[in-house]
Specification:
With 278 residues, this protein is mostly helical. It is built from 16 helices and two strands.
Length: 278
């Protein structure tokens, strides 16, 4: 895989004059510091924010920053994408590519079997992966997710690697427990729900799950079994989708399953098609 074979050289877009400066850099002189600021600006990284969040950047040799960009670029990420990630997480600018970033990339490739083409998709969708410990965060999360059924054809993919940055004890388990206790489902039923709709594990219990369950049970007089059949319900906005469509159905005296009420057919809500044909 490219990321395993990558040698860390400055990107071609950086001038030979600057590269020569890096080679002998042992202290952050005024000229080299300005070069560093220019380099960050070229990447669309806010230098002031980066220095505030990561004070170590002030004394770090610019060659170390270049090596970080080079490794990330070797995965297939575009330079603008790399800049966006480094601006989001300035601590990466002084990280050791070999011991801190490369293990994450190898974990995605070797332990989750994400293809070389999909590695940049994973990173773009969840840059936090790059600042997460493989041993203390990513691998424990993967182990827990496997117990829920994220294996085989339902294994973690580039589309839901965001689940790997969730703390098992503080984030994942409380959501599982709420779905069990709040809806009365057993662990197997909840596991099937989250495998079918992985985004469930990314939603806030207090701000998403609880108010939607309460509205469904109290206002819609729904049967919790329908939530088991259609867990995607929680992905729709309560104020912009669920409430307005329920109100419209109620006004016309129409009963409709959640999946019919909320899904779209060729860009047109099924609810609308049902109403115009009544």
């Amino acid at each position: 895989m490219m990321i395993a074979r990558c040698s860390l050289f400055p990107p071609p877009c950086f001038s030979a004059v600057r590269v020569r400066c890096f080679a002998g850099e042992t202290s952050d002189t005024g000229i080299l510091f300005r070069e560093k600021l220019i380099y960050l600006q070229d990447l669309n990284v806010d230098p002031h924010k980066a220095l505030r969040v990561n004070p170590s950047l002030r004394s770090a040799p610019i060659s170390s920053v270049v090596s970080v960009e080079t490794l990330l670029s070797s995965t297939g990420l575009s330079r603008p994408a790399v800049g966006r990630i480094l601006d989001m997480f300035p601590d990466l600018l002084t990280s050791d590519p070999e011991s801190e970033i490369l293990p994450v990339l190898r974990f995605l490739s070797d332990e989750i079997s994400i293809s070389e083409q999909d590695i940049p998709k994973s990173i773009s969708r969840c840059p936090r992966l790059l600042i997460s410990s493989v041993d203390y965060q990513l691998r424990p999360a993967l182990t827990f997710l496997k117990t829920l059924g994220f294996v085989g054809r339902d294994t973690i993919t580039s589309r839901n690697t965001v689940l790997l940055v969730s703390n098992v004890e503080r984030t994942l388990i409380p959501k599982i427990e709420y779905l069990e206790e709040g809806l009365g489902f057993n662990r197997e039923e909840v596991a099937k729900m989250v495998v079918r709709s992985p985004a469930l594990l990314t939603y806030s219990v207090d701000n998403n799950l609880v108010p939607k369950v309460e509205f469904f049970m109290e206002e819609m007089r729904g049967d919790v079994k329908e939530l088991k059949r259609f867990p995607q319900y929680f992905s729709f906005s309560l104020e912009r989708k669920i409430k307005p469509r329920h109100r419209l159905l109620k006004e016309h005296g129409i009963l409709m399953p959640l999946s019919e009420m909320l899904k779209i057919v060729c860009g047109v809500p099924r609810l609308y098609l049902q109403l115009v044909n009544t």
